[in-house]
Each structure stands twice: as structure tokens, then as C-alpha cells.
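Researcher: Next sequence.
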Amino acid sequence: MIKKIFLSVIIFLFISSSLVAQRSNSSRNYSKFKFFDKPTIELSYGLSNIKLNGYSSKISDAGLLELKLGFTNQRESYFGKKILRYDNRFLFLSNSSNDLTSKSKSTGVNSSMWRFGFGNKEGYGLKFGSVSLMPYTSNSFAWTNFEYDKNSFQSETDKLMLDNFNGTFRFGSTTEGGINLQLFPGFSIQPKYEISDIYPRHLFGKQFMSSMIEVGGLFLIDSFTKNVLRNAPVAGTFVNFILKNAYEYGFYQLRKDKMNWPFTSSAPLRYNTFKLGMTFTF
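Model: Next structure:
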């Protein structure tokens, strides 16, 4: 597992470095082709509702802190000078626990988790002088170490279900929708909603095919929304945001009972999180 994680991070960094080098060495006008531009630091806080299908006890809500480091490109799109294309590639580290929430102590099962991984966010937005409004869709892969209080009241069946996730790094996936509101160059805030799944086992073949189905649907939506953007650029930015996030939400609802839908598989441990973030771009 550690070798797989290390290899994934190395591949991500290698691709990032290669694209940056190509951008620096090219003599072309590359403004429409670069994927990595300005270093970005993103800090977020959120409140997570944690659920596992078939688990009869209650898992207490938890607070979440998250750090993302990446590179962001924000440029004029092909659809108009005031229509922006937004791309961000990032590595992230998150911590969640009951100690990070201001709620009074719950009677549910207390838990904590650490996770790290990599992902991307993308979308189209509107420019109003120095202010920009950029709705986006984000997807990422993560490895999560989940732990829970075994002394809390729960049935033996429930304990066995949570033991499938407890005390070791498990693979998972995340989707997020939000709005990147740039108040002035170099600083923005993001209200956002995230669904994050932790898999009890990583079944590569089924997970790969499930992801291909998901990506195929996104590709079709992307083709459709680009046609909308050509004919109605302003409306197209929101059509792109709504359709992609509605599709991802629906797809993840199908995965609530089967982590590798449509294939037979176990239910994932799910974090539903409302977050508020701020981003510094250099």
C-alpha cells in the first residue's frame, strides 16, 4: 500500500514538473495551453456528517480542517473576454475529529481521521473587473486513516462494520462542488460541499470500471456544456456547474450502497461535509 501511495504522488509531481518545464521553455504564446501557473495555498474548515449504510448506531458529526497546496491557472476562455477558465491541481492533507466542532458532546460514536491525496478542480466563471465568480467541480483520490472510540455504545455487528475501516489507511474518492469568489487578485473564498467515500477494500478492477463510467458521463456533459457556452457564454458557466455537480451528486448517491456501482460491492464509509475555504494565490 505504501508503495502504491508513493508511486501515485511521484507520478503526480512528475507530470506537474513536466508541464511547468514545457511552459517555461516554449517560445509560443502559451496562455491558452498552460495548466499550471501560480502557486496556491487553500485552507478550509467544515462540519462533517458521517454515515455507513447498514450501520444502526449514530456516528457523531466531526469538524474538519484541510490544507491544499497546488497550482492554479485562471485565464480568458475561448468563449469571451469576461468568461474565465479556471483550473487547479493540488495535493491535500485533512484532519477530522469531534474535538474540531463546537457542538456539545454527542451520544453517538466519536471518531477521528487523517487523510491525504491529490485532485483537481475546474470550471468556467465570470469576471467583473478585479472580482471573479467561478463555480467549479472537483474530484480527488485519497488515502484515509479512520479511528473510532471502541468504548462507545454500539452493537457487536456495528463494531464489526466499523472495524473494516479502523486503524489503517484505506483508499477512497471525493467529489466537491463550490464557488470560488475572488474578491481581489491573490485572495478568494469558497463555500463548498463535499462527498468523500472511504472504501473498506480496494477492488481495483471494479473501481476502475466504475470510474470510467463516471468519467464517460462527465465527458458527455462537458461536450454539451461547451455548445451552451458558445451560444450563451454567461448562462453556460452556470449550466456547466449545475449539470456536472448534479451528475456527480447522483452518481455518488448510487455509490452509497455499492462503492463500485454498478458492480456488486460493499458500502463505503461516507463523509458529507459543508466547508468554507480561503485561497491565497501567489
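Model: The mean pLDDT is 86. Residues 2-202+265-281 form a domain with the Porin fold (CATH 2.40.160.20).
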